[in-house]
Amino acid sequence: MNGVIDRCPTGIVGFDKLCDGGFVRNSDNLIVGGPGSGKSTFLLQFLWNGIAKFGENGLYCSFEPDILDTLNDSMAHGWDFSKLSEEGKIKFMRFAPQTSIEELKKELTRMISKNNVRRICFDPVSVLALSLSDKGKIRQTIFELSSLMKRLKVTTIFADESLEGEMNWTSGSEWTKTDILRFLSDSVSIFYESPVAGVGDRAIRIAKMRRTAHERAAIGMIIRDGGIEVFNKEGRVVSQVERAAVQKVDVSMVPKVISQKKETSSPVEVIPKREDLVAPVALVPAVKRDDGSVSVIPTAPIHQELPKLPSNNVAPQAREKTAFSSSNVVT
Which helix (H) or strand (E) holds 140? Predict the structure, then answer.
């Protein structure tokens, strides 16, 4: 099956072997788990590997204010996104929970098209539906976002919170936002914050993945300095040979579109700029008139830009203290 279906490899040690080489390209994928189960690490590693190993630009969308802490944590794994951000290869956006689906779709379409984004992560996606009580509206909102990502030809990962005791499917009137996500997604991977039979320090189970002959049992995994490593089906730690193989780009797994990609001479903006609307960083709806003047609609921000990431020439000690300071973010 992996010889027919175009795959988007995660580059995460052990994971791609569980699902014929990675996610189905341009699919929508849900990962769900409790706090500390490794979801955010998986998202960042997926984006990092996409750029470093497969030449695919990424976009990270957050609906919570702790995105700065998440990015600081990535440095512990050696993923300094600063240079990649300056080169326009990775974008980080934080949306307000009250952002409408239409505004969200508009901003995402612009960002994805402008920056040639091929991989995108939403964390946590259920916040989108917090203001909705009607299940039909929730389903429609999630469906519209999912459909847009497929039309734009990006491989998407939605992350959502769920406790280990809440991993079973519900039915009828008890359906939750996460259940709707599970139903609409092409794949569902469940993360556990406790190990399986003493193997590793956490576990992962691919509950479903369309068009894929995937492993269905829960498999142990561990988070090391270099990120997540998933054990093999026998519970064996991945060998040095297998680990080294993942660190190199497997030409057979690189999507064909890479060779067709046209290089652009102009650098890509780190974050979309709108100095003509409002300065310096808070973006709000506005109407630009024919004479060049701008009328700003007083309302809550659609989304906020993150401060510029620290450059690689900053000393490690200084970076540790100053990186992603929340005081630089307009709230």
Answer: helix 135-151
Contact in structure between 9 and 119 (CB atoms under 8 Å): no
> Whats the size of the chain, residue-wise?
331
74-127, pLDDT tens digit by residue?
889 999 988 888 889 999 998 887 788 899 999 999 999 999 999 999 988 777
Cα 201 from Cα 195, distance rounded (Å):
5
User: What residues form DSSP beta bridges with 286?
Assistant: 296
Which has the closest alpha carbon to 141: 181, 182, 92? 181
Distance, C-alpha 196 to centroid of its chain: 26
Residues 6+ apart with CB under 8 A from 87: 267, 268
pTM check: above 0.85:
no
Decide if 197 contacts 184 (C-beta within 8 A): no
Q: Which domains does the chain have, with CATH numbers?
A: 7-271 (3.40.50.300)
CA–CA separation, 52 vs 89, rounded Å? 10
User: Which pair of structure tokens corresponds to residue 77?
Assistant: 């794994």
DSSP state of 243: H
